[in-house]
Amino acid sequence: MKLYESETDKGLKPTGVYVRSGTTSAPASEDAIRMMIKMTDGDSFEANRSLVQELTFNRLDEELKKRGLEFTEVQMKNLGILSSDDIYTNMGLLVSDQCKHSIKFAIFQGTDKLVFKDRKELTGSIFVQLTDAYKTIDFYNGTKATFHDLLRTDERDYPEDAIREALLNAIVHRDYSFSGSTFINLYSDRLEIISLGGLVSGLSLEAAMMGASQPRNEKLASLFYRMKLIEAYGTGISKIISCYKGLSVQPKFENVEGAFRVILPNTHAQQLSVEDQKYLQILRLFENQKEITRSDVEEALGIGTTHAINMLKEMLYKDLISKVGNGRLTRYMAK
Question: What Pfam family is a match for this entry (predicted)?
Fold first, then answer.
């Protein structure tokens, strides 16, 4: 197998990278080219020269000063931001204000992707993206109050430490040789964070669950460690699992070729049995309004008054909803 760049002036194929096998050749895909580069130069994305050399580091400088850390030219070389011949590396591009990668955030109505409630793309320095992503999730992270005698306890839908660890893992360990974005999808019953690259070659999901770790971006992981954003390699997944200890719902971790997904369940989302799935459409009405009426149910399901009354009575009996008021002023609230 040989690689060559075609010559347009000889009437051959357009300029590009081709893979020749025997007497035939075919254009190489971006993934194939990426793998060939890694095979010849090693998986050293961070150390490679950045194609963008006009870089600024205002946010990084600000974050380092908060932690009492210096950011001199010597430090830039020690961190791998600047090469020995004073050329900015891809590591430099990643932590610069001109970072080319982004996080795409989507909030969906319900448990599927049929209806968008909001969407945004977070750009700029990865430190800006990290902060903005956490703040956006926190804005939508509901709070449920429970009372034990006179003591009130507030619990968030998603444990804050689990969110933090999942975000940090996605940023520190994704494969930045892919140009695509990191995805954060928020549904009524779960939060999903999908990062490109999957686990490094040779590291299984089972090994990662045990605490084994091999940072793909060693310089970036080292910087985050110095900044005390991460405490130790290999602890992220175990911390996330610990956040859900003793709860009826548990986080999930999925690794496929090219991507890694963390699924954090909403600790307060109602888990309906198969028998109770018929009430799901009524429960979804509460996603847009605090209270509903019998008329709302009739309109949403296209049913008559008697059918709607019977369904609401069943939901009251099953403790899925509560009743407020009487007569024409009767309203219903989700439990």
Answer: HATPase_c_4
* Complete DSSP assignment for 234-254: T-HHHHHHHHTTT-SS--EEE
Q: What's the CA gap between 26 and 85, in Å, rounded?
A: 38
Categorize the per-residue pLDDT at 328 as very low, low, confident or very high, splitting at 50, 70 and 90.
confident
Sheet containing strand 24-27, edge to edge, reads 2-5, 17-21, 24-27
The whole-number average pLDDT for the span 169-197 is 95
Q: Which residue has the tokens 């992981």?
A: 221
pLDDT attached to residue 289: 85
Q: What is the pLDDT of residue 13?
A: 41
Phi–psi pair at 282, nearest 5 degrees: -70, -45
Asked if 146 and 201 sit in the same domain, the reply is yes
pTM for the full model?
0.71
Element (H, E) at 79: none
Q: Is residue 19 part of a domain?
A: yes
Determine the structural domain holding residue 288 and report its residue range: 275-334
Q: Would you say residue 158 has pLDDT above 60?
A: yes
Residue with tokens 């750009």: 123
Q: CB within 8 A of 332, min separation 6: which ones? A: 291, 292, 293, 312, 315, 316, 321, 322, 323, 324
Higher-confidence position of 279 and 60: 60
270 within some domain = no
- Strand order in 103-108's β-sheet? 116-122, 103-108, 182-186, 190-197, 258-265, 252-256
Cβ atoms 38, 197 nearer than 8 A: no
